[in-house]
From TrEMBL:
Pfam families: Acyl-CoA_dh_2, Acyl-CoA_dh_N
Native source organism of the sequence: Agrobacterium vitis
Organism domain of life: Bacteria
Molecular functions per Gene Ontology: acyl-CoA dehydrogenase activity; flavin adenine dinucleotide binding
UniProt name for this protein: Oxidoreductase
Length: 427
């Protein structure tokens, strides 16, 4: 347990941790190994996925076969209910092949949000859980500053708008979106669940990295009706997430609200870790296979400068892995003990994870620069890892300076910001 996660409040100090083994579960190891066996396929299909703007059918079907999109689905619905460490292992395994493909695992973590709704809505969502191929539900502009518009009507809301960054939308049946409305003169923020027939996918995901994530915008140009049971106020989200704790089987459903927030971040940064590992594999192979341009060595690997880079990036990746897996293990330990994190602990551990992601991205950059122009062809996985890592660490949830500022206020004893995702007030 690191210092950032050490319990500070009296109740945590009195209550011992349950005897929980550190590391992935047997089921997590099995799925991780199955995903690793798919890495050659994932890597071969990566360029085609970039052109398609989504995972290729071959990759979707192969990952679906091993249960990749059900990592956070409760066991009662045919899923795995994985905890943080298993998620890190499985998502990271996919990322050794391709970052965009692994991103769909990060998307699948959001499936847990489906269970904040009532039983009728959950039953509606889960009707296709067994047969659906790919992510069942995605999120788009859920907590963004700009969301869709809604107006109250009998039995629910009429909703319209455009929602950005709908990662996985080309594969999903449902979308979790942000909405805003007024009651009298009072503005409100909320969340709505749209079925696939209620929105269109916009062809606007033209980016430098993570091109195969189908993170397109989705839009409902005309108003669509969303019943009240498929909506909630944004401020209710943490409360409802807390209520699903221990409702289903699996470590993931024993995790507290702050532990869930950390798990989402873990699933995100595990992609950078997997990409760094995949890049190191390629770096070693290519360095041993290529001759340097203007130095008298038989291979690039024999040059001292390459050896220095290899040693440094290996240490950086190992350090990042220790940080990420350490936080993941702590999340699972607390889940098994019935404990959650305090806001201070969540902020400090989030910064640890963000720092680990930056280490991985920097390691990838170092490897590409070391090998030089041979890596820039679009068929070379290293250039894809470099582009994908750069885009991933620009994600609002894991940008280093904002995360450091939030954590730094706790370190310095200053009052924390009273907000969560998208600047919404913390209730």
């Amino acid at each position: 347990m690191n210092l950032a996660s050490a319990p500070r409040h009296e109740e945590s100090a009195r209550q011992p941790y349950a005897a929980v083994s550190v590391g992935p579960s047997e089921a997590g190891q099995i799925m991780r190994d199955k995903v690793l066996a798919l890495v050659p396929l994932i890597r071969r299909e990566a360029e085609a996925g970039e052109k398609l703007g989504a995972m290729t059918p071959a990759v979707v079907n192969a990952l679906n076969e091993v249960g990749f999109f059900k990592i956070t689905l409760p066991r009662e619905y045919g899923g795995y209910g994985f905890g943080a460490r298993d998620i890190a292992e499985v998502v990271g395994a996919a990322a050794t092949g391709d970052g965009s493909t692994a991103w769909s695992g990060f998307v699948s973590v959001g499936l847990r949000n489906a269970f904040v709704f009532d039983e009728q809505t959950v039953s509606e969502l889960m009707a296709d859980a067994g047969s659906w191929v790919g992510p069942l539900m995605v999120g788009a502009s859920v907590f963004s500053q700009i969301v869709g518009d809604a107006r109250l009507v009998d039995g629910g809301f009429m909703v319209r708008g455009k929602w950005s960054f709908g990662s996985g939308c080309k594969h999903a049946k449902w979308a979790f979106v942000g909405i805003q409305w007024e009651e009298g003169d009072v503005p409100h923020r909320g969340i709505a669940l749209l079925s696939r027939d209620q929105y269109e996918i916009v062809d606007d995901w033209h980016v430098m990295g993570l091109q195969g994530t189908s993170s397109n915008s989705i839009t409902a140009l005309d108003e669509v009706f969303v019943p009240t049971r498929r909506t909630m106020a944004s401020a209710e989200m943490p409360i409802r997430l807390a209520k699903i704790r221990n409702r289903f089987e699996g470590v993931g459903y024993q995790t507290g609200a702050f532990g869930m927030m950390l798990t989402v971040t873990i699933s995100n940064v595990a992609i950078t870790l997997g990409m760094a590992k995949g890049c190191l594999q390629e770096f070693s192979h290519q360095a041993n296979a290529r001759k340097p341009f203007n130095l008298p060595y038989d291979t690039v690997a024999e040059t001292p400068s390459t050896q220095v880079v290899a040693g440094r990036v290996n240490a950086m990746i190992n350090a990042a892995e220790t940080l990420i897996h350490g936080v993941a293990d702590e999340v699972d330990r607390r889940a098994a003990s019935g404990l959650d994190f305090e806001p201070r602990e969540e902020a400090l551990n989030t910064m640890n994870l963000v720092f680990a992601a930056r280490l991985c991205a920097d390691a990838i950059d170092m490897m590409q620069i070391c090998l030089g122009s041979s890596t820039v062809t679009l068929k070379n996985p290293i250039q894809r890892f470099a582009r994908d890592a750069r885009v991933l660490i620009s994600h609002g949830a894991i940008r280093q300076d904002p995360a450091a500022e939030i954590a730094g206020r706790h370190v310095l004893g200053l009052p924390p910001f009273n907000m969560f995702a998208g600047g919404l007030p913390q209730k």
